[in-house]
């Protein structure tokens, strides 16, 4: 395994490329959102039905995370990455030429499978290429890149859709895929020696996942965190209809509002680091998910009563997303804290669960076409309430202290 020391040249370039790999998936989600109404008109469907293409992307991300983990260990990091990026490029081109909703839904699923290779490989290569003591800082930089995607992609997508049409968005995504593929081929080192003894048979892979699932701390915080995070998926899926159809905002204004709301998600996730100096992760999670559920309930009640106009909706969404920003990093850390041997399997299963539940929330929003924000609000509130219930029920099953391992040192956080 190749590791870069702190004096190596090109570290900044490597971090930038790994950040681009990590951001490819979020960019592919956010950039086409302003074009929902244009896609709906061209394909002869409703905006809510176009949301199914977003749901299929989430399902693809969920499935792909489980697929690439074993492949990256068996064949090294770069070969599976190349295959995934090539699939992404081809399906991006297909999305640009599609003429039916069914075709778009299918192509978006396989586009997500391709983009998964980039995200999973980037995480693995950080662990390979950088000293352990630098991993947290590098991951934080990658998360900033991912967090910037909701601020940049919808705004760019809005202008591109307005000027060139929604097909051009997928052409641009394909070009980005080509650029990232070339950078990966020529600028990224192979950081992991292929493990020829690694079994790709279902039995050993499933047994690893079963060992992870049996840990109460894992399923408690993974499920609670996944339902808390699912509210974000419901928002992403429902926001084009809410802002562009209900409030009649144009694509560029929607892009700016989407970017502004993402500040709540990004800002709270960064403030979280400061909060953890005084409070434990499990304490932050409890407050965050309860506040998220209360905000969701307030959203539903107000929408049902017809109390809210655009400013109130924006404020409630900002608070809700800020709660997600506090909950998600802490539930993720607590989910994988008990594992050393199966940390990779735990991370893959956690990510797949998170994306799978998020996809269901996204589908739920897409199935309703009530021309109000109530379906989105109800699913956001429902997932947040489920998060609270699962946290309360699952916490009773955790018999031992939550322990995070740092080398050979153990840190008790509960």
From TrEMBL:
SUPFAM superfamilies: MFS general substrate transporter. The chain crosses the membrane at residues 12-29, 49-68, 80-99, 105-126, 138-160, 166-188, 218-236, 256-276, 283-301, 307-327, 347-368, 374-394. InterPro entries: Efflux_drug-R_Bcr/CmlA, MFS, MFS_dom, MFS_trans_sf. The keyword Iron-sulfur does not apply. Residues 14-399 form the Major facilitator superfamily (MFS) profile domain. One of its GO terms (biological process) is xenobiotic detoxification by transmembrane export across the plasma membrane. It is found in: Cell membrane. It comes from the Bacteria. CDD domains: MFS_MdfA_MDR_like. GO terms for molecular function: sodium:proton antiporter activity; xenobiotic transmembrane transporter activity. It is a multi-pass membrane protein. Keywords: Cell membrane, Membrane, Transmembrane, Transmembrane helix, Transport. One of its GO terms (cellular component) is plasma membrane. The keyword Transmembrane applies. Belongs to the major facilitator superfamily. Bcr/CmlA family. NCBIfam families: efflux_Bcr_CflA (TIGR00710). This is MFS transporter. The lineage of its organism: Bacteria, Pseudomonadati, Bacteroidota, Chitinophagia, Chitinophagales.
């Amino acid at each position: 395994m190749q590791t870069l020391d702190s004096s190596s040249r090109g570290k900044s370039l490597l971090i930038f490329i790994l950040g681009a790999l990590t951001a490819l998936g979020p960019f592919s989600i956010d950039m086409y959102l302003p074009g929902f109404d244009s896609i709906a008109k061209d394909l002869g469907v409703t905006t809510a039905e176009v949301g199914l293409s977003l749901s299929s992307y989430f399902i693809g991300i969920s499935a792909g995370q489980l697929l690439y983990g074993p492949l990256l260990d068996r064949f090294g990091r770069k070969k599976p990455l190349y295959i995934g990026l090539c699939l992404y490029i081809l399906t991006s081109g297909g999305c640009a030429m599609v003429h039916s909703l069914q075709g778009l839904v299918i192509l978006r699923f396989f586009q997500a499978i391709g983009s998964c290779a980039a995200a999973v490989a980037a995480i693995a290569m950080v662990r390979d290429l950088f000293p352990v003591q630098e991993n947290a800082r590098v991951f934080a930089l990658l998360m900033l890149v991912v967090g910037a995607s909701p601020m940049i992609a919808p705004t760019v997508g809005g202008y591109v859709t307005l000027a060139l049409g929604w097909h051009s968005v997928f052409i641009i995504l394909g070009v980005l895929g080509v650029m990232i593929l070339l950078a990966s081929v020529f600028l990224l080192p192979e950081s992991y020696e292929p493990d020829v003894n690694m079994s790709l048979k279902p039995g050993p892979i499933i047994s690893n996942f079963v060992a992870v699932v049996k840990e109460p701390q894992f399923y408690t915080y993974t499920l609670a965190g996944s339902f808390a995070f699912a509210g974000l998926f419901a928002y992403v899926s429902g926001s084009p209809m809410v802002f562009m159809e209900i409030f009649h905002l144009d694509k560029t204004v929607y892009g700016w509002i989407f970017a502004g709301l993402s500040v709540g998600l990004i800002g709270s996730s960064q403030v979280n680091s400061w909060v953890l100096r005084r409070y434990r992760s499990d304490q932050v999670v409890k407050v965050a998910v309860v506040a998220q559920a209360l905000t969701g309930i307030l959203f539903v009640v107000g929408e049902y009563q017809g109390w809210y106009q655009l400013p109130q909706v924006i404020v409630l969404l900002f608070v809700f997303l800020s709660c997600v920003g506090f909950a998600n990093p802490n539930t993720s850390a607590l989910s994988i804290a008990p594992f050393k041997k199966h940390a990779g399997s735990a991370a893959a299963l956690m990510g797949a669960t998170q994306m799978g539940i998020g996809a269901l929330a996204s589908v739920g929003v897409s199935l309703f076409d009530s021309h109000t924000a109530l379906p989105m609000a109800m699913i956001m509130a429902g997932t947040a309430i489920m998060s609270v219930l699962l946290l309360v029920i699952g916490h009773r099953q955790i018999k031992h202290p939550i322990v995070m391992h740092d080398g050979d040192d153990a840190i008790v956080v509960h």
